[in-house]
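Standup notes
- HV: blocked on the assembly model, inputs below
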Amino acid sequence: MKRALPTAIVALTLAASVAFAQGSVPQRRFGVQWRDGVPRVHFSATDLADESLRDQLESGVWERLVMRVYAYRGEEPAAVALRSCRIHWDVWLQHYSVQFRSSRVDRDETHRTMDAVLDRCLVARRVPVGRASDYREHRGQSVYFATLIELNPLTEAQVHRLRRWLARPAGGGRIGGEAFFGSFVSLFVNRRIGQAQRTLRFRSQPVRVPR
Amino acid sequence: MRLSRFERRIVAAIVAVAVVTLGGALWFGQGAVSEAYAVGVNERVLGQLRESLDVYQMHFVTLRRDAERTADAVAFHRAGHAALEAEDDEALSTYLGRSVERYPNVARVVVIGPDGGELARREVGERLDEEQNRLLTLERPSEQGGLWQVTLATPREPFRAHQQSSDVVDVYARLVGGASYVSSFYVGVYIAFLLSVIIIALAVGIIVSRRVTRRVAVLAEATERVGQGDLSVEVPSDGRDEIAELTRAFNSMVRDIKHSRDRIEYLQRIGAWQDFARKLAHEIKNPLTPIQLAVQQVHRTYDGDDERYRRTLEDANAIVEEEVATLRRLVGEFSEFARLPVAALEDADLGAFVDKALRGVDPKGLLSPELADAESPRLVLEVDEAPTPVQIDAQMLRRALDNLVRNAVQAVAASGPEGGGRVIVATRTQGGEAIVEVRDDGPGIAPETRDRVFDPYFTTKGDGTGLGLAIVKKVVLEHQGAIECTAAPEGGACFRIRLPLAAGAPS
């Protein structure tokens, strides 16, 4: 996990380079504190969780909320912070199971209420975005932060399951269940097969990097 | 790889057929793939799958409610309350035992007193197995200020099944959402296979057409050489297909052309020689009689006494007589050669003709005066008993045959082989032609002179005129045949005459 994270961050950084450069992204107030040259942002997106999102989180199926906070200089992302929550409403135990992951935290939690879950997953509290070296070149310059929140983005594991499904539509255990065309098709299926079920975007006010 | 025009046309034809056929297949295939995909992966099925998850969820809600009710039932029962009230540990224990027996989902009941101490406990070990069951502990207050802790168990399997189903629904939902994306890959793979088929068809077409066109190209090149006058062309004609048949027909045609050309050339040449022979005979023949008469006159009219002069006159007269006689023979042969008639062909059986012409002929009589003392060779006839129908001018062909046999007899006799030697005359049918062979076991003819032996005035004999074989060839050509000179298996020369079989003859 820790080894894969830098790779994932680089990939996400590149992937996001276009995401916030185009179109109008709503702006909201971010709290930013600089410590040791690293910005720590705080903001809340709980108000963006509408009924539909709440219903989905209560469905009893594992749902995934991924939050990425990018630091932008112009149209190029300079740094990124990544955190994800796997959320499951356990109707038997009557609580929410939350698997919280970030660059620094890897924790399984339980919460009694939806608000607590949203507070855990959609509120950023002093989240460090990148490293000091990412901002060294931009001292005294203006940057902004942009947040991308995705509900159930496609994961590698899901892509793997999709490929397996296409290659063996009758199921993996069946002898001779290999699909001729599907085996070839599965080779080409990648993450482009689907986007996240929902995507929320917003950006911060301009923030000046301390000298 | 450079393609010839013919190959390009074949490839273009294959491509055209493939594009039209496979284009249609692609159009239908694309529709079929999209429809087939939509049959298996669609929103309706996804909705049903999601509803099945809802059913699971409703089941879990029911389980939870049942657990709540069970906890209430255990905690708020009169018997339990009375036992607690009476502080009757035995009655409380009995009640707990009855409770776990009555409610199969109760795994453990613990009664806590107001001071927090445990008053009683009853549990079923197998129900507490967390591998098999999910446990839920519910707390209910007691009227005495204590607490009832009821642990309920429910099988874990439905939760596992629910998780697996939700994974399946998730994958299925992705397939529904990416229907156009996935089906485009199906079409893409389909196109890739179609293109592979086209490429393989093209490769096979090129390879096959190459085999054909290469042979056609060879044939075309040979035709060009023939057009430039080279009739020695022979194209290899292995195989059984139409190209091989065409090649064999081409080779046959070239042979026929060559044969016709040689024949025409020879006839033209021999015609010129006949003119020359006629003039020569005329020019020589006219002064011969005056010369002979003049010498005879001088010889007769001398009546002197000079015996020496008289002998000189007699010798001169004898020499002139002899040479004039030789010249007359030559003139005769020249005239005969110049007067060779056009053949008047009639139906005949070649075997019978040869048999009639040569049966009983004494080879000794064919020897020249110079070879009168030589041992005569035997004349052997090997005539095919089956009829060999041909069209011949019997007189001309007999003369030709006579020349060949005479030459062979003289050649064998001159070489003086032990045992007298043999001259064989054979007839047979071969390759749609009638064959007459005159073979001997004499010294043969040197290979370098075989091509020239039929030229007029070419001879290897001291007293020959070089007209015999020229006459033979002229006669054979008049019969639309051919003659060749080769080495005989017996060691001598072989003259092989080929005559066309008469129409209607079995080939």
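- HV (later): unblocked. Chain B has eleven helices and eleven strands. The longest strand of chain B covers residues 133-141.
- Next: hand off to the docking folks.
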